[in-house]
Amino acid sequence: MPVGGAEDLVAAIVQGLDPQRFAVSVATLGPPGPVGQELRARGYEVVSLGLDIKRISTWRIVGAVRRRLKADRPDILHTHLYHPNLYGRLGALGLGLSGVVAAVHNSYTQVKLHRRGWNFLLGWATDRVLVGSAQVWQDVRRYDGVPSSRLLLMPYGIPLAELNPRLSRQEARERLGLSGGDLVMGAVGRLEEQKGHGHLLAALPELQRQIPDLVVLIVGEGREEEKLKRQVRELRLASTVRFLGTRRDLPEIFRALDLFVHPSLWEGLPLALLKAMGAGLPVVATRVSGSQEAIEDGVNGCLVAPGDPEALARAILELHRHPEARQRLGDAARRTVVERYSLEAMLQKLEELYLDLWRRGNRI
Closest by alpha carbon to 265, among 145, 146, 118, 107? Predict the structure, then answer.
């Protein structure tokens, strides 16, 4: 469980379910990772199966998962992301669990035939397939052929209380070693092709010309890191861009920002974006899947076409020139998250689903 949106969502579910009604255990295919270790430190059971899914055959992995399920005998199995969805559902076949739930987190920009085949077959062995956005719902229905009756749209929830740090903006910037800054903006996400950081960097030379004291904070790690750092050097942006790596103090980082940018090329419903909105930040995001479902352009944020550095630069520059618009959009963004994406609302729906499946499985 590395630091990421799906992993943080699982952690929020584990910690948020009513402990008087639900006993929760987490199993990871590979190492527990930072998020799994955090859960362990807080007293939750996190079991690592110690599997290297790149080197071990599918059926050996399924066998290990099945042995764990037989040992634990859970009422409900809830899996997240493609490989756990695959191995977890295969391992659960014939065990008579009360409910099997699989969560799909991303839209299907890159459709793989073998994945479609597995998802179609296993869709019939799954009680509910959860999706966070309407676009993902449509993709799972269209490409995987999962019946509508088994699909459930459940937007993600954000723990709003955690987004209220005690630091002032000045204190937050001092902690990051920032002094001044005509505009401080940030992006949070894995450094992967999907997240579109290269297009953000391509927009910066024009912004730098018009905003001399521009600061850009990039939070995250991933396979594109060295490529992105090379792009920064080639564009002579070393004094502008700071790579902060993986961070667990996002509320403090959000407090230091004037603007949040989310330049993804494809998405599900991005948790980092929702958290930034919940923190009251004005956001510029790309018009993809869940982002365009959460944001109404010009009302609670700004939307631009994906993969378009010029459009990204224009939107950022416009907000830089109009601080009153930034305040208005940030306030509206916060209201959107409070009204539509609260953690409490999501947990209530999830608890109702678990209990409904349990009752059906036990004919209560």
Answer: 107
